[in-house]
Amino acid sequence: MTTTIRSFPAYANRIGYGDINPHEIVRVISNKCVEVRSMDAERDKSVELNWAVGGFAGHCVNQNEQKWVITSNASYPVERIRLHKDGRWYGVGKQRFTLSDTPVKFYDFNF
Fold first, then answer.
1. 103: buried, middle or exposed (CB in 10 Å: 19+, 13-18, 0-12)?
2. Which of 43, 63, 71, 106 is a good FRET partner for 23, with 20 to 30 A between their CA atoms?
3. Confidence of residue 2 (pLDDT cuts 50, 70, 90)
4. Cβ atoms within 10 Å of 24's Cβ, excluding its own
5. CB neighbours of 111 closer than 8 A, spacing ≥ 6?
6. What are phi and psi of 89, to 5 degrees?
7. How far apart are CA 14 and CA 62, in angstroms?
8. Which among 24, 6, 5, 22 is positioned nearest to 14, based on CA atoms?
9. Model-level pTM?
10. Is pLDDT larger for residue 105 or for residue 45?
11. CA atoms within 13 A on the CB side of 88
12. Of 110, 6, 22, residue with least CA distance to 71
């Protein structure tokens, strides 16, 4: 019996509370295991963030408009993530990932 590996998107974005960090898929091991590597993300300063009084030090009222320049970085280590029975992808320490056709970076300035 032969098994075919399904096609995968090119990226896996790590979800951490309010933040999202981009990773690229560098190798598909099986339908339930892929190797990923973190990517560099630099905030695009063309979008000016607006702050209002509130929270601990202020509240960013337009944080959903933030943009990032995301690039590969081969110097980062490769790690494996696995598909669990609950249908979600997890890395070491139960770090949750979502697979995507585009890399996503989001920083929650209001957390």
1. buried
2. 63
3. low
4. 20
5. 17, 18, 19
6. -95, 135
7. 22
8. 22
9. 0.85
10. 105
11. 10
12. 22
Mean pLDDT of the chain: 90
For residue 50, what are the CA distances in angstroms to 9, 16, 41, 66? 34, 23, 21, 11
Average pLDDT over residues 82-102: 96
With cut-offs at 50, 70 and 90, classify the pLDDT of residue 57: confident
Separation CA 32–CA 66 (nearest Å): 32
Nearest C-alpha neighbor of 98 from the set 88, 106, 109: 88
Token pair listed for 102? 């585009």
Rounded-to-integer distance, Cα 61 and Cα 53, Å? 10
What residues have CB less than 8 Å from 88, skipping those under 6 apart? 96, 97, 98
Amino acid at 103: P
Q: What's residue 64's pLDDT? A: 83
3-state secondary structure 22-47: EEEEEEEEECCEEEEEECEEEECCCC
